[in-house]
From TrEMBL:
The keyword Repeat applies. PROSITE patterns: PPR. Transmembrane segments: none annotated. This is Pentatricopeptide repeat-containing protein At4g38010-like. The lineage of its organism: Eukaryota, Viridiplantae, Streptophyta, Embryophyta, Tracheophyta. The keyword Repeat applies. It comes from Coffea arabica (Arabian coffee). InterPro entries: PPR_At4g14850-like_plant, PPR_rpt, TPR-like_helical_dom_sf. Keywords: Repeat. PPR repeats lie at residues 145-179.
């Protein structure tokens, strides 16, 4: 444990290097130094967990990890809620090495086979832009749910790994046990559009119609319209758009078709749709 604490301290020194783009104020750094060297009574893990989860900027996250280090050094061991909160605190710092250290502690001190914790690890790696590491906890999970798969798919797509995101979606469909949710479909449709793969978009369109998602969720139709326009398939894009009732069309519905037409240099048509939009919105 002493070795692990030393590694944490070294990593915190690295991430607080002035050359890194962290929002640090002298007051917070003074507070962090005072805490790490003081003999103040430590809070319990319940209070600490709440603080870890509330960190929404890098300087607060730095203090959170100093709290964690000090509590470990006093032989106070974390509970099952500590690690998801710590992983959340990694986000503002955006350092994959820090997530990796928390991952190491989870392996040694955390609960076995915790689905929520596994999902939190995937998300933490994705938020830090470490897609190569995000796959590790995903592959190690004995049980995966729709959140596990959707988190990885959306993360890969957000990081520009469109083909990998589509492949994870295919794995989910082949699994047979996990039904994709709207977020998973939206992410994989975005990937199809960015890949320019009209064939993939058509396959997903057929799947969505068969599953009844087209009628249930307008956001799915918006994503489908966007995917077709990015693939250059104006006919399919306008068909999906026209199948949406005017009363159900929202800002994203109109934006998807208009931006697609602009991208394809269909000036006359995009002006037509703009007029239609302005008439409906009044």
């Amino acid at each position: 444990m002493k070795y692990e604490l030393m590694r944490f301290r070294s990593l915190l020194l690295l991430i607080t290097n002035p050359r890194r783009n962290l929002q640090r104020s002298p007051l917070v750094l003074v507070r962090a130094i005072e805490f790490s060297t003081s003999g103040a009574k430590l809070p319990n893990w319940v209070s600490a967990n709440k603080f870890f989860a509330s960190c929404d900027h890098s300087e607060a996250a730095l203090v959170a990890f100093l709290y964690y280090m000090k509590m470990l050094s006093s032989n106070t061991f974390p509970d099952k809620y500590t690690f998801p909160a710590l992983l959340q605190a990694c986000g503002p710092i955006s350092d994959p090495g820090l997530v990796k250290q928390v991952h190491s502690h989870i392996t040694k001190l955390g609960p076995d086979e915790d689905l929520f914790l596994g999902n939190s690890m995937i998300n933490a790696y994705v938020v830090c832009g470490a897609k190569c590491f995000a796959r590790e906890p995903f592959d190690q999970m004995a049980e995966k749910d729709v959140v596990s798969r959707t988190t990885l798919i959306s993360g890969l797509v957000a990081l520009g790994c469109y083909g990998e995101g589509v492949n994870v979606f295919k794995e989910m469909m082949m699994d047979g046990w996990t039904r994709p949710n709207a977020a998973a479909f939206a992410s994989v449709l975005s990937a199809c559009g960015d890949l320019g793969s009209c064939d993939h978009a058509k396959c997903l369109h057929a799947l969505l119609e068969k599953a009844g998602w087209i009628e249930l969720d307008v956001s799915i139709r918006n994503s489908l319209t966007d995917a077709y326009t990015k693939c250059g398939s104006l006919e399919n894009a306008t068909k999906v758009f026209n199948d949406v009732e005017d009363s159900e069309k929202d800002l994203y519905t109109w934006t998807a078709i208009i931006s697609g037409l602009v991208m394809m240099d269909r000036e006359g048509m995009h002006i037509y749709f703009l007029l239609g939009w302005s008439m409906i919105l009044g």
